[in-house]
Design goal:
Layout (H helix, E strand, L loop, with lengths): L7 E4 L4 E6 L2 E7 L3 E6 L5 E5 L3 E4 L4 E4 L11 E6 L5 E5 L3 E5 L7 E3 L19 E2 L4 E5 L4 E5 L3 E5 L7 E7 L4 E6 L3 E5 L4 E5 L10 E6 L5 E5 L4 E4 L2 E4 L9 E4 L5 E4 L4 E4 L4 E3 L9 E7 L3 E6 L3 E5 H7 L4 E4 L16 E2 L5 E4 L4 E4 L1 H4 L9 E9 L4 E6 L6 E2 L4 E9 L10 E7 L13 E4 L5 E10 L9 E8 L7 H69 L3 H20 L5 E3 H19 L3 E7 L8 E3 L2 H14 L6 E10 L2 E8 L4 H7 L6 H7 L1
Parallel strand pairs: 37-42, 44-46
Antiparallel strand pairs: 1-2, 2-3, 4-5, 5-6, 7-34, 8-9, 9-10, 10-11, 12-13, 13-14, 14-15, 16-17, 17-18, 18-19, 20-21, 21-22, 22-23, 24-25, 25-26, 26-27, 28-29, 29-30, 30-31, 32-33, 33-34, 35-36, 35-38, 38-40, 39-41, 41-42, 43-45, 46-47
Helix pairs in contact: 3-4, 3-8, 4-5, 5-6
């Protein structure tokens, strides 16, 4: 079989699975009783054997075995590679090994064990490492050898009672820090001088587990009792980090990631932040970073990559986890012994084998396969339901009336990280926005209004890259008659008609009530006006008789006779209008003219009267009877009677949008002076018409 990168895969007669391209042959593994192979579209290599089905997940993990003791484990505890490309391996029980041909063959290194301090039960340990100067640290149990080509090799005896636990390089000062369970040493690569660093008493209560550098490149010692940092020659505890640390690494921001076996924390030198969604239930026994983006988390039987870039930008915890189901088949992962090879791979010594990890293949972020919509169920409020279709159908459906709830079941064919698979969906026509990502593979919609809808779903393993959209068949929810547009329009018309009729009846009733109230008010006003007139006419007559009496006393008998004739005409007019409350403006002015003739008999040429009417004034407009006359009479009596010489009274009438303006003017003595001359005046005439 072949893959998309044009590699050919074949099974040899001796039971080995091999990969071939451009004349280069690489053995992938020993597969007994194999009879068929297949490479799927996701890059997974499947091998069918008489013992079962094997999967090499994207060929992302490669097993390396020495098989120096058939039937036993290689027991590789640490690995490194120097500048010349030579791999060095430290095995707890099988001593030290090297490979100069890219792990095709291995050679045992025996000479480093020719020393009087060698522990015969422990030949290797953790802590193998290489430096920028080309040096190599090779553990030999509790001691170590320092090797640097072409001819530097030196054995350092530390203790036969404790194993070597780890080493770390300070490339700036060319120092290598090496520690055992209870001791810490510093080796200078230039002088090859080894110093023992004294830790405070009881600072690390049980053991030193691992070393690292902080953001300022200061050495940090981690173990039980909390991390210590070397500051200006003194050891100090890290602030707010009272935690037993078993694994630690520094990321590209300078922050530390620490583990206490079961939990993972971010330490930013101020706070310790616990991660909440770590998918692995295994113990965390190794930590490192990859390409300034990924945190690599080694468990006792699994491997997890965490996206640091997404975590720092969004706060989301995005993980990719791999175990035996995805090609990582280890008995027990190694503790704090990841090694970054120069080809971008990571070597991880485990109890039963050495694993080469290909992160670039593992972390392919192409979207998973398009989900499959498996089932659609419609239900009603009374609990009845109907299955519309399964994955073998692709039809349109019209639901029975009253079925307003829809349940969609779906799934995606994802080989790995199925537990972190996320779905998002929407029901087009009902809610066109994608839902929030969820790990549930069922979507429920309730109380859906009538209409045509189609269901869409996508899946992702990181919440960023989404698969192609799976689209369901169209589902039509019918409506009842009362939900149709015709019914709505009909109801609107009926409602408007009812409202209109009701408004008309209410308006008519209100008009009737208002009319009755106005009629009653008019009757009351008529009675009031009649009562007022009964007072006004005697008042007028009294003033006239006073004038006649004045003429007789002054022996002006002819004038008194004419006065009585005019008075007779006035009384006839008053009596003819006795039942009227108003008359036209013209009739009122005629009445005033007659009255002025009476007054001129007394005033002779000393009384001048004028009427000025604007053109637009409506002479037929109704006004109360005797209203102008009363004001004219008042002007003569109080304004001109006591004035010496001639006097004048003028009536001005002009139009207004709301009626007419009537002004009565005189050039008499004025109101203030009139008070002194008319001491017997009651003012009843004006008071009557003010009412």
């Amino acid at each position: 079989t072949t893959d998309k990168n044009k590699f050919a895969y074949y099974l040899s007669r001796d039971g080995k699975l091999k990969k071939f391209k451009d004349g280069n042959i690489e053995t992938i593994g020993q597969i007994p009783y194999a009879n068929d192979i297949y490479n799927d579209k996701s890059g997974n290599l499947w091998v069918c054997t008489e013992q079962g089905l094997y999967c090499f997940f994207r060929q992302t993990f490669k097993e390396i075995k020495f098989n120096v003791n058939p039937g036993k484990y290689d027991d590789i505890w640490s690995v490194t590679r120097n500048k010349s490309g030579i791999y060095y391996y430290s095995s707890k029980r099988n001593k030290a090994w090297l490979s100069a041909d890219n792990n095709n063959t291995w050679q045992r290194i025996n000479w480093i064990y020719n020393n009087p301090y060698q522990n015969k039960s422990v030949y290797g340990s953790f802590g193998a490492g290489s430096t920028q100067l080309g040096g190599t640290i090779l553990p030999t149990g509790g001691d170590f050898c320092y090797l640097r080509q072409p001819n530097i090799s030196k054995f350092f005896h530390l203790s036969i009672s404790s194993q070597l636990f780890g080493s770390i390089e300070d490339s700036i000062k060319h120092n290598i820090f090496i520690h055992q369970q209870y001791s810490l040493y510093r080796l200078n690569e230039i002088t090859l001088k080894l110093d023992s660093l004294i830790l405070p008493n009881n600072s690390i209560s049980n053991s030193i587990i691992q070393l690292c550098f902080d953001k300022d490149n200061r050495i940090v010692v981690c173990g039980r009792g909390g991390p210590l940092r070397l500051e200006n020659g003194k050891w100090k505890k890290l602030k707010n980090c009272n935690l037993d640390v078993y694994s630690v690494t520094r990321d590209f921001t300078g922050n530390l990631w620490v583990s206490d076996w079961l939990n993972l924390y971010l330490y930013n030198y101020n706070n310790l932040i616990k991660l909440k969604n770590l998918p692995s239930k295994e113990m965390t026994i190794a930590l490192t970073t990859y390409k300034n983006r990924w945190l690599v988390i080694g468990g006792s039987a699994d491997l997890t990559f965490m996206d640091l870039d997404a975590f720092y930008k969004t706060g989301k915890e995005i993980y990719y986890r791999y175990d035996a189901g995805s090609g990582l088949n280890v008995l027990e992962g190694g503790q704090n012994n990841f090694f970054h090879d120069r080809d971008g791979t990571i070597l991880w010594p485990c109890s039963d084998k050495l694993i080469r990890i290909y992160p670039e293949r593992l972390l392919q972020t192409e979207a998973p396969n398009t989900p499959e919509i498996l089932l659609c169920k419609a239900s009603a409020q009374n609990g009845q339901f109907v299955i519309l279709a399964d994955s073998c159908h692709n039809r349109n459906f019209i639901l029975p009336k009253g079925f307003r709830n829809l349940d969609f079941t779906f799934a995606a064919a994802v080989f790995n990280n199925n537990e972190i698979l996320r779905y998002r969906y929407r029901l087009k026509g009902y809610h066109d926005q994608w839902s929030e990502p969820t790990n549930l593979s069922i979507a429920t919609f309730t109380n859906i209004p009538p209409g045509a809808y189609s269901f869409e779903v996508q899946c992702s393993i990181n919440g960023l890259d989404w698969s192609e959209t799976a689209v369901s068949y169209e589902v039509r929810i019918p409506n009842f008659f009362y939900e149709t547009t015709f019914h709505r329009i009909l109801m609107i018309i009926i409602t408007l008609a009812a409202v209109g009729l009701l408004s008309t009846l209410i308006s008519r009733r209100m008009r009737q009530v208002k009319y009755l109230k106005l009629k009653q008010l008019q009757q009351i006003n008529d009675l009031k006006l009649k009562a007022i007139r009964t007072k006004a006419i005697p008042h007028f007559s009294g003033n006239v008789y006073n004038n006649i009496d004045y003429l007789i006393e002054n022996q002006q008998y002819e004038d008194a006779s004419r006065y009585l004739a005019l008075l007779s005409r006035i009384h006839n007019k008053v009596l003819s209008d006795a039942d009227k409350l108003s008359h036209s403006l013209k009739e009122e002015l005629d009445f005033v003219e007659t009255y002025i003739k009476l007054e001129k008999l007394r005033f002779k040429e000393n009384l001048k009267f004028s009427v000025n009417i604007m053109p637009k004034v409506n002479m037929a407009i109704q006004i109360p009877i005797m209203i102008i006359h009363t004001y004219v009479e008042n002007a003569i009596k109080h304004g001109l009677m006591s004035k010496k010489g001639r006097g004048s009274v003028a009536v001005e009438i002009e139009d207004d949008n709301n009626g007419i303006w009537i002004r009565v003017k005189d050039d008499g003595i004025g109101r203030n002076e009139a008070v002194h001359y008319n001491l017997n005046s009651t003012g009843i005439g004006l008071k009557i018409f003010e009412k």
